[in-house]
């Protein structure tokens, strides 16, 4: 019973010998036992001797000053140097472990709980289809139908090469002739000088008429005139 039980004292999972519960142990001082074990058997008091025996142990045993009695396990425990150092630090108001840094930065995990405020029930709009999403889906459907968007897993479409033909050919092929016809250039829209009632600033003076009429190709020149009978 006087062995070194320091290794067992370090374990928090060690089962207690006495299962009397959280009651004062002085209630068993007048009894011949100190409680009951896990099987219900009474636990006899450890014969610790009297004051003379304790004095002799302190004189003969070098570990007497570091031996304590565990009343719940009914045994003596010899404290190690590390345990004595922890007790010394606690009695002087220090931390049990000398390597503990109280000023170390610590970020505790914060659990944020979001409470829903406002109305108890969701609005009807929450369960209705989104207008913007419907518009986006219609755009995608239109692009797929027109071939603008294709599945990359599908084989690529064959490339159509442009048809080359002679636009000056005299063949009687109607399709070739129709495709070879080029649209005429757009005509210039008539201006104020071609109006039947142009403004006065567009009418020629006698000097302008004499000067422009003597030029070469003056037969094709349109002379602006005002017709009062058409107004």
Topology:
Blueprint: H1 6-9, E1 33-36, E2 42-44, H2 51-60, E3 67-70, E4 75-78, H3 81-91, H4 131-145, H5 174-180, H6 206-213
Antiparallel strand pairs: 1-2, 3-4
Subcellular location: Nucleus, Nucleolus
Domain BOP1 N-terminal: 28-230
Main location: nucleus
Kindly summarize this structure in a few lines:
With about 230 residues, this protein is of the alpha+beta class. The protein has a domain at about 5-90. It has helices at about 5-10, 50-60, 80-90, 130-145, 175-180, 205-215; strands at about 35, 40-45, 65-70, 75-80.
Q: Can you walk through the features of this model?
A:
The chain has 231 residues and is of the alpha+beta class. It has a domain at 6-91. 24% of the residues lie in helices and 6% in strands. The protein is built from 6 helices and 4 strands; from the N terminus they run αββαββαααα. The chain has helices at 6-9, 51-60, 81-91, 131-145, 174-180, 206-213, and strands at 33-36, 42-44, 67-70, 75-78. The strands form 2 sheets. A two-stranded antiparallel ribbon has the order 1-2. Strands 3-4 form a two-stranded antiparallel ribbon. A hairpin with a 5-residue loop joins strand 1 and strand 2 (42-44). The longest helix has 15 residues, at 131-145. The chain starts with 5 loop residues before the first helix and ends in an 18-residue tail after the last helix. The relative contact order is 0.06. One of its GO terms (molecular function) is ribonucleoprotein complex binding. This is Ribosome biogenesis protein BOP1. It is found in: Nucleus, Nucleolus. Keywords: Nucleus, Repeat, Ribosome biogenesis, rRNA processing, WD repeat. Pfam families: BOP1NT.
């Amino acid at each position: 019973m006087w062995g070194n039980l320091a290794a067992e004292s370090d374990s928090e999972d060690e089962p207690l010998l006495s299962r009397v519960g959280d009651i004062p142990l002085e209630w068993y001082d007048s009894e011949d036992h100190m409680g009951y074990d896990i099987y219900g058997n009474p636990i006899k008091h450890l014969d610790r001797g009297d004051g003379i025996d304790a004095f002799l142990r302190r004189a003969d045993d070098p570990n007497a000053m570091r031996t304590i009695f565990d009343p719940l396990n009914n045994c003596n425990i010899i404290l190690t140097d590390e345990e004595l150092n922890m007790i010394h630090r606690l009695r002087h108001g220090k931390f049990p472990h000398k390597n503990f840094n109280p000023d170390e930065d610590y970020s505790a995990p914060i659990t944020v709980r979001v409470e829903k405020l406002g109305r108890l029930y969701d609005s009807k709009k929450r369960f209705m289809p989104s207008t913007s999403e419907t518009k986006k889906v219609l755009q995608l459907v239109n692009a797929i139908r027109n071939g603008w968007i294709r599945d990359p897993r599908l084989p690529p479409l064959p490339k159509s090469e442009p048809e080359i033909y002679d636009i000056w050919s005299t063949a009687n092929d109607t399709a070739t002739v129709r495709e070879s016809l080029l649209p005429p250039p757009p005509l210039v829209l008539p201006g104020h000088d071609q109006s039947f009632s142009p403004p006065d600033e567009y009418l020629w003076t006698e000097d302008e008429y004499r000067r422009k009429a003597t030029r070469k190709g003056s037969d094709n020149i349109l002379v602006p005139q005002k017709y009062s009978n058409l107004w």
